[in-house]
Amino acid sequence: MGKKILILEDDSTIAAGLEYALEQEDFTVIVCRNVAESYAFFEHNDVDMALLDVSLPDGNGYDVCRFIKAKFDIPVLFLTVNDDEANVVMGLDLGADDYIAKPFRLRELISRIHSVFRRYRKDGVSKHIVLISDLIIHTSQAKVFKNKVEVILTALEYRLLLRLVNHEGQILSRNQLLEGLWDIAGDFVNDNTLSVYIKRLREKIETDPQNPSIIHTIRGLGYKAGE
C-alpha cells in the first residue's frame, strides 16, 4: 500500500477529483467533508499527509492543522481560495508545509506532494529543517537563518525560496516559478516582476549577491537552487 493522505474538503467535486488523481499515484486516500469528521478519524487512525481546505462548514482548516501538528509529525498542505498574504503567513506560522491556491493544476499539486515527502526523511534528522549552503530553513516555523542570524523574508520571498529548494539541483523555468506566486496586492507575479523578487531574495540570502551560490541563473532555461 502507498502512503496515506487525508483530504479535508467539503466540495464533493474537488474531493473526488483529488481522490482519483492521488490514487493514480498509488496513494491511499481518505476523504473527510468537515472538521468533525477529520477529528473523529484522527481519534483512532493516522495518515502520512493531510491536505486541508481552509473554509469548512463547521470550522476552518487552521484549527485542524493546529490539532494535527500537536499530535502527529506529518506534513500539512493547505488548498484554498484564500490566497492573500495574511492567509499564507497564518498557514505557514501554524506549521503548514506548503500552500496552494485554487484553482490549481493537479500535476503541480502532485509534484509538491512528492517534494514535501522527500523533505520528511526517516533518518532521525528533523523533518522540519531544510539545509542548503549556509541557510537553515525551519519549515514548521516558516523561518530562515543564515549563519545563525534570522533572515526576514516576505511571504512571497519565502514561497519562492521553498519552491527552489524543494527542487534542489533541478532547473525550474520562469513559468514553473511563476505558477501560484502573487504579490501583496493579490496580483499574479509576472515575468518582469519575478526578476525583481529573485534579486531581492538574493540580496537577503546570498553572501555575495553578484556571485550567488544558492540561487543560480541558468541562462535561457531558468533558475536552480544548490550546487
TrEMBL record:
4-aspartylphosphate carried by residues: 53
DNA-binding region: 127-227
Segments forming domain Response regulatory: 4-117
PROSITE patterns linked: OMPR_PHOB, RESPONSE_REGULATORY
MF terms (GO), sorted A to Z: phosphorelay response regulator activity; transcription cis-regulatory region binding
Top-level taxon of the source organism: Bacteria
Domain OmpR/PhoB-type: 127-227
UniProt signal peptide: none
Statement: the UniProt record of this protein carries the keyword Methyltransferase: no
UniProt cross-references to SMART domains, sorted A to Z: REC (SM00448), Trans_reg_C (SM00862)
Keyword Transcription regulation assigned: yes
GO BP term, example: regulation of DNA-templated transcription
One GO term describing the cellular component: protein-DNA complex
Record's keyword terms, sorted: DNA-binding, Phosphoprotein, Transcription, Transcription regulation, Two-component regulatory system
PANTHER family: ALKALINE PHOSPHATASE SYNTHESIS TRANSCRIPTIONAL REGULATORY PROTEIN PHOP, REGULATOR OF RPOS
Protein name: DNA-binding response regulator
Organism: Paenibacillus psychroresistens
